[in-house]
Amino acid sequence: MSALRWGRGAAGLGRALWPAGHPGLLAEEGALGGVWGRRRSSSASPCEQDRGKDWGHNELLEVLEARVRQLQADCVSEVTVKRVDVARLPEAGGFQPPRKAQLGAEGAAPGLSGRWAEKLDKEKWTMQKRRQRLEVKLQERAQKLARKQQLRVEPRLLNGQLAACLQRWEQGSPCSPWEEQLAWLLQEGPQGLSGEVQQAPADSGARAQLESQQQRLLAFFECCLLTGHLPLAHHVLVIQHSKSRPPRLLTLAMYNTVMLGWARKGSFRELVYVLFMVKDAGLAPDLLSYAAALQCLGRLDRDASTIQRCLQQMAQDGLPLHGLFGLPLCEEDQVVLLRAVCKAQPGFRPPPQPRPPPQVSSSPLLRDIYEKDLPVSYPRLHLPQKELERLFQEQLRVEMATTVTVESVEKAPRLTPEVLRARKTLKGLRARWEAALCRALQESKASEAQAAREGRPTLLPYLCLLGERECAQLLLQTLQALPPQGESLLSLAQQLGLRAFNRHVVQRRLLSNQVRDLEKRYSQYLHLLASDGQVAEPCLPRQHWEALGAPEAPHEQPWPLPVLVQLGKQLAELLVRAVHMPSSLAAPQGPPKLIPVLYHVYSFRSFRQIGILKPHPAFTQLLAAAAERTLTFEAAEVPMLCPPLPWTSPHSGAFLLSPTKLMRSVEGTTQHQRLLERCPPAELHGALDALTQLGNCAWRVNGRVLDLVLELFTAKGCPRLGLRRELARCLKAAREMHSLRADALYRLSLAQHLRRRVFWLPHNMDFRGRTYPCPPHFNHLGSDLARALLEFAQGRPLGPHGLDWLKIHLVNLTGLKKRESLRARLAFADEVLEDVLDSADRPMTGRKWWMEADEPWQALACCMEIAQAVRAPDPAAHISHFPVHQDGSCNGLQHYAALGRDSVGAASVNLMPSDLPQDVYSGVAAQVEVFRQQDAKQGVRVAQVLEGFIGRKVVKQTVMTVVYGVTRYGGRLQIEKRLRELSDFPQEFVWEASHYLVRQVFHSLQEMFSGTRAIQRWLTESARLIAHTGSAVEWVTPLGIPIIQPYHHESKILINGGIQSLTFSSSGDTSQKPNTLKQKNGFPPNFIHSLDSSHMMLTALHCYRKGLTFVSVHDCFWTHAADVAVMNQVCREQFVRLHSQPILHDLSRFLVKRFCSGPRSPKPSKNVWVSRLLDTLLSVPKTGAFNLEQVKGSTYFFS
């Protein structure tokens, strides 16, 4: 610093100092520029004074040090700098003038004397101290951060005795080996220290929250083991254990999971740490805990004495040694465990897993199904063993790839330069997006790892389960499939989480030996199904599969719903952040920059504001311009190319590798799965075998119908026939139109993909027992078009009566002769045979008779089948693949009438023989018309307006659904919709007329079905009282399927952070209070659905015994035309057998035992509800005099 700058800096101090030394010298050097004036008072605020003081001190130190350096540099020998002192600052206002400084003599001691120098030293010392304190703080903070980064291994125990023992052992470990600690812990360690803490909270909401947190923690620990993050899992376990606040989150399963991980690594010390925490938590080790300890000893080849002490303690705890070898451990774990046990007990051999004795369902309805002495004629497939094995390998490759790419049936564009340019642009963007997503995933993993070190379960292990490239491809597939209107972030997150889980399960099975074992076992299984296969004795597919080997490997536990949503949300947010495109695609004239491809916006749907991820319009336009003709489906969304695996348990069956639920439910609901797992296996055999039989039906595509449909679809579509291509203007209509068009596109593309292929549709069931095909886009449960595209892959000769059944089926599809006899329908088919043949030959250019049918596409397919049959040299020998349907006549009311033995109701729904079919809808309409006429005579205005408008179509939907629990409000909406469709009805009376009609419809049903209404009321009241006792309604179907209604009060689950906090509801958990309204309204229809599913399953199993091909759409049964008569006989016999059981009395006994037989509650109010429930359950409705045997002679029961 120059002398000039030094002087200017000192002058800026506001005359705080007097000059030291000779004024002339300082003036000569240009330092101070003269003598300062006297002190002036200051008007600055105290804050300003303090800031001035600090600035002055720092600046002065800088100036003086610089001056010293300058004088030394100039070698001014005759001048020595004496110590200078800063004038003392006054306590208030202004500055004190310094004492007069004196210049020392030349021969004086070195340095200038004075208070300035003392003050300077003092300030330097103060600054040094401050610096030291700062360095100490920084060092402490760095150490704290380092400790935070370091994963904890040693536990912090809450029990003083255990903590002292652990500390003593750690300090004296050379004298006290860890094996001794293990033995002490198992034998003498204190237990039950935290029993008070372990009590579950009494409040149902808190209990549900605790269970959710425990599920998330357990899933986190299990995933950490799979991804090699065992130290992190141990770290989180230690931190969670150290939190003493009740209720404790950790369960024995969590401790065992981490212990098993350390055992596999042979890390004995860490395993003992976990065992210390188990004892500290007041938990008793179970078989899995001992298995982990023994396995670790076996890997480390420890001496036999420690192992022997473990085995002795296990015996004292009442745990059998052979139970160790029934645990769900992998093969390697079992080998190491056996080696350890054999070291202590050399002669030990694990007992062979006894094959459980064949169990038979206790249901009397299934006795004939499993009776070995009765003759059977199980059907076989039409394909040989080698072909089926080839199809198995093809399906295996599909599921290993996890996705299926299908060519779209969209009209192929001309390859113009614009199309080629758009495709090249997309290809380049996708390559960059994949790289960007991989980088974003790496950053996200690093961030989650940092968060996990704080002791919280994070998404790190879930993100590591799949490779970064696989995750990136999954996200790009999701981006490709987003509709232009966008998709709810919550829905997208759940889909992404579920897809990630399914891929993880497939990978786990590939990495294990399951695929190799599956190949061997499936090849043997095909001996039962193949046309050239041989088996020792005929049996059901499930029985044959179980006889082939050991039980299946442990199934993968599904991740909790919050984990699925949180993982999917994070993946979706990665997609939003990482995927960008050049702005030139949106605005060619603007400055070049990158813009997001996805935007997060909010929209109102059903009066709720939801977050939506919406693609940029420029990206949608780019996709449209590229016109890529491929669609990507999940492997489990596509029909199978080989026969499905037989259902053998609640979690084993259907697809080869892709996980499938036996009982479908809302994601996150576990009560159904728990109920099925607690059920004795034999009680599920009826349902398992029925589902396997339905899935073993081989299908093929009706090529002629598909060609015509594709011709219409790629042209302009035909809304009247269910093919829509027109554009919609409003947003809601646009969404609906996009959904309808996507549905048609997926269905037709899959049909084209499977053309000339044989495929299978694996089935599962809902919580009531109703069956559904697993592939959602292409199956026989769809619309008229979907059903017309499918036919049986295996054909049967029509036989003597098959052609007649084809004709009757065609007339049924037209809806023209519903109240006519079968003979009259057959005669009508012969009358219009020319129109039928014209429709088959010229469907779009002829008279188009088929288009007037209620089900036009199925009618057209039937016309084509009839044309081939009548033109065959011998119609009876014609091989037909066409499925013929027999539909129940208002099946719900049929079950009610049979339950109540209601003769009037039975006659109305064709349970009694008659020459003509009874139409219950026309009967109700006629009864309503009687009431209307009476009211019109009394001058009721709305009754007069309705004259001539009350017909079958107006009341049909309400009559059909009243048996399934429709309320008057819902019925009014149904009738209102029908009235608005009547062009000549005065629309100003629609609201009033619908109110009037729904009252009359319910009144008519009460008159016609008095027994039905009594049973309905009994079921409703029973469910209401059960819900008031705090339980959900449960029952067991006649085939033994356990049912529980999933209606509970919703609990809100919040996922914080990111671009949007997600809140979603969960209402399927038994720990939550039941929803009384839904429980009571849902019980009657759900109970009837469980009966119609039982009837269908019985029919399916008996048809299978007779060698028939059988499938169903709930109460609509399908088979070959030649076998309709046999199926009709079986259908009626099984309905009579079903309702010959005391169904209502069995239900009453079950409900009494389940809800009224426990100890009295400490709550008096609950005891009151239980008492009222018991009275209601014992008051079973009385039945009428209807004879069920008459059903066997009813032609129109199913027709």
TrEMBL record:
Q: Which residues form the signal peptide?
A: none
What InterPro entries does the annotation carry? DNA-dir_Rpol_C_phage-type, DNA-dir_Rpol_phage-type, DNA/RNA_pol_sf, RNA_POL_N_sf, RPOL_N, TPR-like_helical_dom_sf
Which residues does UniProt call coiled coil?
117-151
Which reaction does this enzyme catalyse, per its entry?
A: RNA(n) + a ribonucleoside 5'-triphosphate = RNA(n+1) + diphosphate
EC code(s) of this entry: 2.7.7.6
Gene Ontology terms: cellular component:
DNA-directed RNA polymerase complex
Lineage: superkingdom:
Eukaryota
Provide this UniProt record's keywords sorted from A to Z: Coiled coil, DNA-directed RNA polymerase, Nucleotidyltransferase, Transcription, Transferase
Q: Where is the DNA-directed RNA polymerase N-terminal domain?
A: 393-696
The record's listing under Pfam families reads: RNA_pol, RPOL_N
**Family according to the record:** Belongs to the phage and mitochondrial RNA polymerase family.
PANTHER family recorded for this chain? DNA-DIRECTED RNA POLYMERASE, MITOCHONDRIAL (PTHR10102)
The role this protein plays is: DNA-dependent RNA polymerase catalyzes the transcription of DNA into RNA using the four ribonucleoside triphosphates as substrates.
Protein name per UniProt:
DNA-directed RNA polymerase
Taxonomic lineage is: Eukaryota, Metazoa, Chordata, Craniata, Vertebrata
- The protein's gene is named LOC101392586
